[in-house]
């Protein structure tokens, strides 16, 4: 079984073409034929992003009819899914999403990924290099899947800090881990990834799993993660990405934008939160742009590995 990361641009491109981790990276020919058939049947449409023009930013067509625009008066904006919102508003909107889905977060993960998320996480742990006595930050920790595993790996001489910006998720995480008997070497902190409340050079490993796409200022968050890592420490980013096979990409888009919200509506009575999930995945940087963002934040030897043909990518970078 061959596993590994691309350590150069050449290797990264090769990794994208030849996915060598058979458990969840290779796509059987039968599946490819199935996705191609789906494309023919549904003519799978590409979801489009609705254009949003701010009142304070007139289009060229109407600029001549608008009052003088002062850039200093412009409110900073970002995206919430396909919507354009004020930066300070996004954090509240994302919080509402996770308040809504927290109680059935694990169930929905299993339903929506057909359980494959457990394999992605297992591979991530294998690539973490975490050992006894080390200190790990599990950022945007979901319901504590990684914390439970890392707690055993670091042992009583180590520590895992589970940090999440959402108090509803923290409550679910704490209750779940206590029921599993994970208590002694785990601490819980409500924290914003953009301004982590830890001293410089604190952690041997920082991991953020399916959380970076929800962060308002990703560059700021990456710099914050870099700051709290010890020299020699590593960051692991497990996140939805861009499928590298066209038939799979179109089928995946159809599933994400048409089926996923319906499952959310049936199970948690909240289809809109899962529509946001699909939109946030589409808006998140693909493999190479995210790699470049990590390099710009100061990380070195940044590499990534495509899982399930790029539906998910695992990025890894070091602080030296």
UniProtKB/TrEMBL annotation:
Keywords: Menaquinone biosynthesis, Methyltransferase, S-adenosyl-L-methionine, Transferase, Ubiquinone, Ubiquinone biosynthesis. It comes from the Bacteria. It catalyses: a 2-methoxy-6-(all-trans-polyprenyl)benzene-1,4-diol + S-adenosyl-L-methionine = a 5-methoxy-2-methyl-3-(all-trans-polyprenyl)benzene-1,4-diol + S-adenosyl-L-homocysteine + H(+); a 2-demethylmenaquinol + S-adenosyl-L-methionine = a menaquinol + S-adenosyl-L-homocysteine + H(+). InterPro entries: SAM-dependent_MTases_sf, UbiE/COQ5_MeTrFase, UbiE/COQ5_MeTrFase_CS. Pathway: Cofactor biosynthesis; ubiquinone biosynthesis; Quinol/quinone metabolism; menaquinone biosynthesis; menaquinol from 1,4-dihydroxy-2-naphthoate: step 2/2. One of its GO terms (biological process) is methylation. Methyltransferase required for the conversion of demethylmenaquinol (DMKH2) to menaquinol (MKH2) and the conversion of 2-polyprenyl-6-methoxy-1,4-benzoquinol (DDMQH2) to 2-polyprenyl-3-methyl-6-methoxy-1,4-benzoquinol (DMQH2). This is Ubiquinone/menaquinone biosynthesis C-methyltransferase UbiE. It comes from Aggregatibacter aphrophilus (Haemophilus aphrophilus).
